[in-house]
Every structure is written in structure tokens, then in C-alpha cells.
Amino acid sequence: MIDLLGNEEFEQFYASYEEPRVFGLRINTGKVARAEFLEKSPFHLTPIPWVSDGFYYQEGERPGKHPYYHAGLYYIQEPSAMAPVELLEVKPGERVLDLCAAPGGKSTQIAAKLQGEGVLVVNDIHSDRVKALVKNLELLGVRNAVVLNEKPERMLTAFQGYFDKILIDAPCSGEGMFRKEEEMMGQWERHSVQEFAAMQRELLAQAAVMLAPGGRIVYSTCTFSPEENEAQIAEFLDKHPAFEVVPIEGFSPGRPDWLREPWCEADGYSSKAKDAVAGTARLWPHKLRGEGHFLAVLRCVDGGSAEASGSASTRGSAGAGAGAGVGVGVGADPSAGAADFVAAAGKRSGRPALRGKGRAEAPPSTGVSLEPLEAFSGELLRSEPFALRRLVCYGEHAYASPPGLPELHGLKVVRPGWYIGALHRGRFEPSHALAMGLRLREAKRALSLASSDERALRYLKGETLEVAESEILRDPKETKAAKGYCLVCIDDHPVGWGKWLDGMLKNEYPPGWRWT
Fold this sequence. Notes:
By secondary structure, this protein is an alpha+beta fold. It has 17 helices and 25 strands. The strands form 4 sheets. Strands 5, 6, 7, 8, 9, 10, 11, 12, 13 and 17 form a 10-stranded mixed sheet that branches. A 6-stranded mixed sheet has the order 21-25-24-23-20-22. A hairpin with a 6-residue loop joins β2 (45-47) and β3 (54-57). α11 (230-239) packs across α12. The radius of gyration is 24 Å and the shape is globular. The protein starts with a helix and ends in a 9-residue tail after the last strand. The relative contact order is 0.11. Keywords: Cytoplasm, Methyltransferase, RNA-binding, S-adenosyl-L-methionine, Transferase. Belongs to the class I-like SAM-binding methyltransferase superfamily. RsmB/NOP family. InterPro entries: Methyltr_RsmF_N, MeTrfase_RsmB-F_NOP2_cat, MeTrfase_RsmB-F_NOP2_dom, Nol1_Nop2_Fmu_2, RCMT, RsmB/NOL1/NOP2-like_CS, RsmF_methylt_CI, SAM-dependent_MTases_sf. The active site is at residue 222. GO terms for molecular function: methyltransferase activity.
């Protein structure tokens, strides 16, 4: 770092590691408006300059130990890590890919910007990390996400030219996180930089194939290494002339002068590519309140590249296998066999669906009935929040898949959409993911506890509650009976299900989610 920064700036850089780390949270605007949350927030918050919904909080406040965390109203996230998605400029209705998504902080940030519209595909190659990714998507009430556990090269055929925006939060040597995670220092080795650089090179090339003409890629790392940052972008630009760098403002610029020995090949890049690298950005811990990051925004000029030239017909037919429909969904095992239905206007469609050891294939016909789901929806829901979606069943587990998806045959699908519940022995059991994705106004029968009510914490601990019939919110014209499933909320924000009968609420909060 001394060679890169020089003695004077290195001293400032080094001194920043003696300072305490900062802490951040991001409001989940998919569930609560910014102004509403700030009005009810119990925390002392100060804005993070580069994120509209991000705030610093004080170390001792412990927002992970508040009922609002369990309601999915915010995500605890390192402040610099919020910057990449801001630069992606996601708009509702777009098709977005988070290519290296676990544990899901940036995926949930993208989802909030989509506002339930469009398609969010999240992928991570590590199966052990996908569980955390799924849980975070469910906690924050994301309705329109598809979760894959796949090698990116296997995704190219299904998603060629499909996405409007792609985020590559690339695996890296992680030097920028040394202050936050000291154990990473012990894992760092010089040879790992070259290993990560090879992976990053492949990820950028694969993303280019899946991007639509005019689309945008944001590439980010949490390392200071020029080989993993400026060098990756310069090499990509030379190999992909249809792409250009969109200059980033508000942060320290990228360093084209570091594209030299001993870090990079001095003559390995065109002068045009070197100049463009100045439009990337570096987030330095001694220049802002956050950890170290590198950011680059790449735009595909319409009609320019080999990847883009073949994508127009693919994009036009991408939704051919995804009809309008109704969907539902709990931790389904994709190997259990599958059926696919579209339940729009009470009809079913026999389109191919997902089955077979986690990879999508055409299933045999099945006798799974939708009647229990329809009965549940009629009794509990004011509207069909999963309408206009394709219903995909893995065995008895049902998911609402976002419209416009290509066929996913052969891909390892963890979640083909919003998990709604299980169709089991003639009855429907709603999932926790369904509860977290709903809004209070969408439920015909609900219980809303104040966050100050001691029963709110007891519910989150999994206890049975005493609840008077008068506390069950319902419109007698729609739902006369208080008995049965009701949506449990805290300060009007859903946190799970309960079953009410004769003054007692049986707790349906999942054991693995409970307050400890």
C-alpha cells in the first residue's frame, strides 16, 4: 500500500484502522416508507451521504434486537456496501441479476428499488451460503425473486440478453474489510489475488452475455488490489468494445496510473481503456465513514456487441414459458418432484416446471389440487397478492414465480419465486415467507400488537398468547369468524402467522427465526 499511496497518504490510510468501525442500516422501502420509519425509529440515525435510505447508527443501539428487525423494516449493512446498488439505478419493472448474491444484503436493496415489480434473479455458487440468502429475502418480504445455486456459465443459455441490470459483487481478496472482519487478515495470501482475478475476469465476460442492449453492469469489490479492480475493467473494455464506463461522481476516482508493474502488465491495455478507468471509483476508509471498496459502472451501447446482437430475439421470447397465473409457497426440496399450474380464471396449464434433484425439467402430470389454496385465499386475503404470477409446485410446495421468466430447464433452482405454502393432504399451510411478503391491508383477519406490548416479544419467542376476540382485526362483512389463521403484525407490519381460538393465539412463528 505504501507503493500505491505514497508515504504521506499511507499514514492517513493506516491511521484509519486505529479508528472504531462505523455501523449502518438501510430502510427496507419495500415494506415501509422512509419518512414513516424515521418517525417511529427508536434509533439515533444520521444519513449516509451516498444512499438515500441508508443511515449510520451508534454501536450500542443493537438494532438486531428490536421487533422492527424481525418485521423486516431494515437491513443491517456496512455503509460502503450500500453504494454498488445505488449506482445500478434500478427502476420498478426491470429485470435484474445479482450474480454473486449471498448473504443477500445487496439483493434486498435491489428488491426494495423494484417495489415488487419486474424480476430479480439472485445467484450464488456456494450452497452453504444460499440458506442465508433465502432467509434474508424472506425476512424483508421480497415477492419477485428467483434464487439459483448455479455456476454462472450454466446460466448463459437461459438468460442470454435478458437482464436490464446486473450486479457483480465479485469474490475478492477482501483487503477492504480488514477493519470490519479482522479474521480476513489471516486468510489473505498474495497468490489469492491472482486466483480471484481469474474468477472476476470470467464473471465480467459471463455478465456481458446476459445483459440486454443498453443495459448496465455494476462491478464491485472490497479490495484495494489494482489487479482485481482497474486491471479487470481495462481488460474487459478492450475485449468488449460495445461497453463503456459511466463516470462515477462523489468518490475518489479510479487509478489508471496503477496499471503498471509490479501489479499489472504495463503494456497490457489500450490507452482508451486506461483513460476510461479514471471514471471508476474507490472508497477509501481514510476519506469517508465506511470500509474500502472499488466500483465501476459499465454500460452496453445498444446494438453494439456480439453478445447484444444475438440477444434481441432471446429477450423478445424470454417470457414465452411464463404465463399469467396465480402462485403460492415453505423450504421445498426441489428433488421431491414437481408440477406446474397457472390458476388464472380457475384454469390450469400444463407448462414445463421445475423438478429433479434441484434442476428444472419437464414434469409428469400430477394430481395436486389448488382448491385448499383457493379456499385459504378466499377466507384470509382481500386480494390475490400473487395474481398474474405463474404457480410452480415442487411436490406439495407451491411458489409464485414472477412473470416473464425464461424456461429454467437444467438449472439448479432453490426458489422459483415467492414461497407461498404447502398443499398437504387436502389442506393449505401458509408459509412464513407468505406472511412476511403480505401487507396488513391485504389480510381479512389480523392481529396488530404494539411494539411496546410485552406480547410482541413473547410472540417472537414462540409463546402462545392470550388474545381477546375483540383484538382480531376483521371486517364482519368479509370475515365473520375470528377463529383460524390470522396475520400477526407489530405496529401494523407483518411478522408471521398465528391461529386464534377461544381467546388463545397458537404461535406459528418458525423455530429457527425465534428471538433468543
